[in-house]
Structure formats: C-alpha cells, structure tokens
Design a protein that fits this description.
With 122 residues, this protein is mainly alpha-helical. The protein has a domain at 9-90: Orthogonal Bundle (Arc Repressor Mutant, subunit A), CATH 1.10.10.10. The chain has helices at 9-20, 25-34, 42-49, 53-65, 92-120; strands at 40-41, 69-74, 83-88. A three-stranded antiparallel beta sheet has the order 1-3-2. Helix 1 (9-20) crosses helix 2. The chain is elongated, with a radius of gyration of 18 Å. The protein starts with 8 loop residues before the first helix and ends with a helix.
C-alpha cells in the first residue's frame, strides 16, 4: 500500500501542469497519488487528495476507461462492500507520453484550423 500521506509541493506542481493540459484537478490529484506505483485503496486516495468517495469513483472510472489504472476488489470479513484498491496499469512516464501525444495532436489541429482561416480571409 502507498506510503504517501499528503501532497507535497512537487506533487502540487505536477497537478498544476496536468491541469494545464486540460485534465480535471480531481484526476490530476488522483494520478499523482498513484504515481508512486504502489497499490492504493480508495479511502487512502480520498484522504490524501481531500476528494469525496463519489469524486474518486468518477475519476477511477475515467482512468480505467483510458486503461491507465487497474482495480482490485478486496473482500471484507463479514458483510459489506469490498474495498477497492487501485494501481497504475503502466508507468507514470508512459501516461505523460500519452498526454504529450494528445497535446501534440491538439496543437496540430489548432494550427490546421488557423491556416484554413487565413486562407479564407485572404
């Protein structure tokens, strides 16, 4: 399980840069917590990020859809819902590479759009 208990200044800087790419702050915070590479239970993510359980669940659905995170259910003794444990499905550096590719694609689309606009107003 993760040893991180709070977000550091470096974590906050990473979060801000991720947000600048258009990522939600909730997703950025969650990714930073998981970036250590260790399996982390949802309650711990909530505590470190100051997010509520529904917010963590929504982020995790999106991260799993992107195939950036794996989920494992840990059964509790007796009755009750299982505890959800999450881990990055790939190294954090690979996720950053995917973000970079997405950003490069956006830049190319913007440049293409501006070039088309310039041609139309000549």
């Amino acid at each position: 399980m993760s040893a991180k208990t709070t977000l550091t200044k470096k974590d906050e800087a990473i979060i801000n840069h991720l947000v600048n790419t258009g990522m939600s702050k909730n997703m950025a915070k969650t990714l930073v917590v998981l970036s250590e590479g260790k399996e982390t239970i949802s309650v711990r993510i909530e505590g470190i990020t100051a997010l509520r359980q529904p917010e963590v669940s929504i982020v995790m659905q999106d991260l799993r859809k992107r195939r950036w995170v794996r989920k494992r259910d840990i059964k509790k003794e007796g009755k009750g819902r299982p505890v959800h444990a999450y881990k990055l499905a790939m190294p954090f550096a690979k996720i950053i590479e995917q973000i970079e590719k997405d950003e490069d694609k956006k830049i190319k689309e913007i440049k293409t759009n501006i070039d088309k606009l310039k041609k139309l107003v000549k």
